Automatic annotation (TrEMBL):
<dbReference type="InterPro" id="IPR036282">
    <property type="entry name" value="Glutathione-S-Trfase_C_sf"/>
</dbReference>
<protein>
    <submittedName>
        <fullName>Glutathione S-transferase N-terminal domain-containing protein</fullName>
    </submittedName>
</protein>
<feature type="domain" description="GST N-terminal">
    <location>
        <begin position="1"/>
        <end position="80"/>
    </location>
</feature>
<dbReference type="Pfam" id="PF13409">
    <property type="entry name" value="GST_N_2"/>
</dbReference>
<dbReference type="InterPro" id="IPR036249">
    <property type="entry name" value="Thioredoxin-like_sf"/>
</dbReference>
<dbReference type="InterPro" id="IPR004045">
    <property type="entry name" value="Glutathione_S-Trfase_N"/>
</dbReference>
<dbReference type="Pfam" id="PF13410">
    <property type="entry name" value="GST_C_2"/>
</dbReference>
<dbReference type="InterPro" id="IPR050983">
    <property type="entry name" value="GST_Omega/HSP26"/>
</dbReference>
Length: 201
């Protein structure tokens, strides 16, 4: 398999973490690329020019990080990322993580192309409100939770990556100071080897 990615995409990082947690990292060749440069190989694999894009052994290209994660979970039954006995809960958490990731990522891209003043636009303010609501929701759900040392699921991965991306790209949000219990949960997750090896740089 081949995975098109870059080092700062939270979506690509999610997929890399799933690969490592499931012991599939050696089965995938990483194809580092710049999705903003209309990389020819990436466009051949995914005409949308977006990462991550996974080319399977059969030559099928999969896009969208959560869909790729679902596929990878089906490739190997070991360490299920989407346990069937808690399917609803895991997908609920994955949705929260995806939404936080989207709001943060879109904010970063909008600033890149239009300057920080774009934050004052109607869409910019809507993204900011969404980030705050999501952080409050996550704090209420994870405030008393301790991360299990051995197990992790797709929802927890998505949330931890989104929080890490927020700290990496939008440090002014200061979610760690405002939600110390959420930070404590997050610290437990990012201590895992899969998070350490894929840290944003």
């Amino acid at each position: 398999m081949e995975l098109y990615l870059n080092a700062t995409s939270p979506y690509a990082r999610l997929v890399r973490i799933v690969l490592m947690e499931k012991g599939l990292a050696d089965a995938v060749t990483l194809k580092w690329c710049d999705p903003w440069a209309d990389d020819a190989d990436l466009l051949k694999a995914n005409p949308a020019g977006r990462i991550p894009a996974l080319v399977t052994e059969e030559g099928t290209t999969l896009s969208e990080s959560l869909l790729i994660a679902v596929y990878l979970d089906s490739v190997s039954p070991d360490k299920p990322m989407i346990p069937q006995d808690s399917l609803g809960d895991v997908l609920h958490l994955a949705g929260l993580g995806q939404n936080l990731m989207d709001a943060a990522f879109t904010t970063v891209i909008a600033r890149k192309h239009y300057g920080k003043e774009i934050d004052e636009s109607e869409l910019g303010q809507r993204r900011s409100r969404a980030i705050q609501r999501l952080l409050k929701q996550l704090s209420s759900e994870f405030g008393e939770k301790q991360q299990q040392a051995s197990n992790i699921n797709l929802g927890e991965i998505a949330i931890a990556v989104a929080l890490d991306y927020l700290a990496f790209r939008l440090p002014e949000v200061s979610w760690k100071e405002e939600y110390p219990q959420l930070q404590a949960w997050h610290e437990g997750v990012i201590a895992r080897e899969s998070f350490q090896e894929t840290a944003f740089v």
